[in-house]
Write a structure and sequence with these properties.
Layout: E1 6-9, H1 15-24, E2 26-29, H2 34-44, E3 48-53, H3 61-64, E4 72-75, H4 85-90, E5 94-96, H5 99-119, H6 121-129, E6 155-159, H7 163-172, E7 178-182, H8 198-204, E8 207-210, H9 224-230, E9 235-238, H10 247-256, E10 261-264, H11 275-278, E11 283-285, H12 294-312, E12 325-326
Parallel strand pairs: 1-2, 1-3, 3-4, 4-5, 6-7, 6-8, 8-9, 9-10, 10-11
Antiparallel strand pairs: 5-12
Length: 329
């Protein structure tokens, strides 16, 4: 049996993922100190055929350019924010992500945020725990707790219609709602209403779900104009990247009542969440837990390793489900 292919591990991964990487490949870990990185590149740079990374990397042109044998960059997560995909494409280097295995859990969070925010579930929990639930004679059972918003006949707009957007649409098919989407172009075969711009979609919908890729092309795509289009009763759900939403504009819109509320799993400068946002009563804030289940984190690691194996060992994936990816996306 020949020597194991050499790969560069840029980020830390769950223990099971790191154990499987070590069993399949000769793993070189990317050091933190610049001088150590230089020594590593001088020692093994020409032999590195694959990179295992997470979304923020960084895997830039400077690193890629020092690895003449590089064939594949396999990403543990969905986003490719920290990978110079354009430069990788110019070098004919394959770039993969774990979008297929992540999408179901992220879609579940979207549905949970939409219902929980609309019905004020977190605030209702706090209301009860603080002993504020009082029911006087002649009152309804909820006492003086404010009424929420029903899912009935709501319009849900998906800003992005990739794997996550399509998973959300499948889940919402069981609800009495209408779903539309905005993407760079209409998807062949999609039966949902298509809107060419984020503003058009926001004006149409009651709940705007942000599930498009991050990066420079979508930075602050959801700005003050889009939020005004969403309207005073509209809800914003963001499970994409914090950079897609202009956070300052969102805070202003929430404070002014320009929109009704927001459910956020991602933020512009994670893990720093502005105090102004944390102080607002009409938001639900999550610490980027969209894919954070035991099952999905295992699947993400296997997806990344399966892609490396398929490229570098010329073997079919050993773990359940095929590796999914894109080239220079």
């Amino acid at each position: 049996m020949g020597a194991k292919p050499t790969i560069l591990q840029v980020n830390n991964f769950p223990a099971a993922t790191e154990a499987r990487l070590a069993s399949e490949f000769a793993v070189e870990r990317w050091p933190g100190a610049p001088d150590e990185r230089e020594r590593l590149l001088e020692r093994v740079g020409p032999t590195i055929r694959g990179i295992a990374t997470a979304s923020l990397g960084p895997v830039d042109a400077g690193l890629i350019g020092r690895l003449p044998a590089l064939e594949i960059i396999a990403c543990f997560s969905v986003g490719l924010d920290g990978i110079d995909t354009a430069f990788a494409k110019s070098r004919d280097i394959k770039v993969t992500n774990s979008g297929a295995v992540v999408a179901p859990d992220v879609a579940d969070v979207v549905v949970g945020l939409t219902i929980g925010l609309g019905r004020g579930m977190l605030a209702a929990d706090s209301f009860l725990r603080r002993g504020l639930w009082r029911v006087e004679k002649g009152q309804w059972s909820n006492g003086n707790y404010p009424l929420g918003r029903s899912m009935q006949d709501r319009r849900i707009g998906l800003l992005g219609y990739g794997r996550i957007g399509q998973e959300v649409a499948r889940r919402l098919a069981g609800f009495p709602v209408e779903v539309g989407y905005c993407a760079r172009s209409a998807h062949p075969g999609a039966s949902l209403p298509y809107f060419p711009t984020a503003v058009d979609l926001a004006i149409w919908c009651d709940v705007l779900v942000v599930c498009c890729p991050g990066g420079a092309a979508t930075r602050h795509l959801v700005d003050a104009i889009v939020l005004r289009g969403l309207g005073a009763e509209g809800l914003l759900i963001n499970v994409a990247r914090g950079s897609v939403v202009d956070e300052a504009a969102l805070i202003s819109a929430l404070e002014a009542g320009t929109i009704g509320g927001a459910g956020l799993d991602v933020f512009e400068t994670e893990p720093n969440v502005p105090e102004a946002l944390r102080a607002l009563p009409n938001v639900v804030l999550l610490p980027h837990i969209g894919s954070a289940t035991h099952e999905t984190r295992v699947a993400m690691g296997n997806s990344m390793i399966d892609a490396l194996c398929a490229q570098l060992l010329a073997v079919s994936p050993a773990s359940p489900g095929p590796a999914q990816g894109t080239r220079g996306r």
